[in-house]
Specification:
single chain; 326 residues; alpha/beta; Rossmann fold; 2 domains; 6-stranded mixed beta sheet; 5-stranded parallel beta sheet; 11 helices
């Protein structure tokens, strides 16, 4: 039996502080980044003609597993959520794997993991001080269910949801805008991620999620802009307040004469005004000549190469650069 052993190393914490400007992280962002101390198995659950994003979460410390779901439609009512919960039967309901597995945050996991790339996948853990390895995926599921929803329920409806869910055997925690607002009050993004929309899925979003799991809040349009937001005002606030700007340099970015160019001009102006280094360039398949043609000054700033280093190392270096200024 062959194992790839992964050591979970601790990272330092960036202290969040309250500011006059509230950056409203979305409920989806918290769905993606909460429970970073757990192993996350991404799933899809089909119900009522719709497919819902979900996650199986394995907590090695508590030796407990639970589930979380995200509801993107803001029109769901208390009865809709109850009907959804009635369809969940422990040991019977089928959840489809979707998007793979996310390992626990190094800061949060007090032990080691080893992963066997087999079918089915095998993951074992050993907490510090524990003499033996244990099977992480064999941890029994609790009845805890977290519902992350764009829908807004009254306090009365949430109490009703929790009470009736209890009769169905579920222990429900409902999280929507109220949860996100309270969490966001003490979180100031430490980095602004400037990118072209064509690089969102392959580069920008993985960086945003990776940094969130490192307890490093970021301004990222998919998370930080809500329906009806003032686009220009929100972006300009992010560019002014964030300590660093992660600049994803690609052929797509260079060809973008819209918001991408405006963001770059704004951050370059701020560097001149504050006489400080703000830009963190991420080179994505571009040459020195292309960078020079776009902005000669960027060649004076040390960048890192996405293709050669990969997501984890790029995000580690971004984290270290951001943490020194926060």
């Amino acid at each position: 039996m062959h194992y790839n052993e992964t050591w979970i190393g601790a990272l330092g914490t960036i202290n969040c502080r309250a500011t006059d400007t509230i950056f409203m992280a979305t409920i989806r962002q918290y769905f993606e980044s909460d429970f970073d101390y757990c192993l996350r198995v991404k799933t899809k659950y089909d119900f009522g003609g719709n497919s819902f994003e979900g996650a199986l979460l394995y907590d090695a410390n508590a030796k407990s597993a639970f589930v979380a779901f995200y509801f993107s439609d803001g029109g769901y009512t208390c009865d809709d959520f109850l009907n959804f919960l009635r369809s969940l039967n422990y040991g019977e309901t089928g959840l489809n794997l979707d998007g793979g597995i996310v390992l626990p945050s190094g800061k949060q996991f007090p032990g080691r993991l080893r992963v066997e790339n087999s079918n089915p996948l095998a993951i074992q853990y050993r907490l510090f001080g524990d003499p033996s390895w244990r099977d992480l995926l064999s941890i029994e599921a609790s009845r805890r269910v977290f519902l992350y929803a764009e829908a807004i329920l009254s306090s009365y409806d949430i109490e009703r949801l929790q009470a009736e869910a209890s009769t169905l055997g579920h222990d429900v925690q409902f999280r929507s805008d109220g949860y996100a607002i309270r969490r966001s009050q003490f979180e100031k993004p430490h980095a602004f991620i400037s990118h072209d929309s064509k690089d969102k899925d392959s580069i920008a979003r993985p960086i945003a999620l990776n940094l969130q799991r490192k307890l490093c809040p970021v301004w990222y349009d998919e998370f930080s802009l809500k329906l009806g937001s003032n686009l220009r005002q929100s972006i300009e606030t992010g560019l002014k307040e964030c300590g660093k700007c992660v600049l994803i340099l690609s052929s797509n970015f260079f060809a973008n004469n819209g918001w991408g160019k405006k963001e770059f001009d704004s951050i370059f102006t701020r560097e001149i005004l504050e006489e400080t280094q703000i830009v963190l360039p991420i080179w994505c398949g571009v040459t020195e000549r292309e960078v020079y043609e776009y902005s000669p000054s960027l060649l004076n700033v040390k960048g890192i190469d996405w293709s050669s280093l990969g997501e984890d190392e790029v995000c580690r270096q971004i984290y270290l650069a951001v943490s020194t200024t926060s």
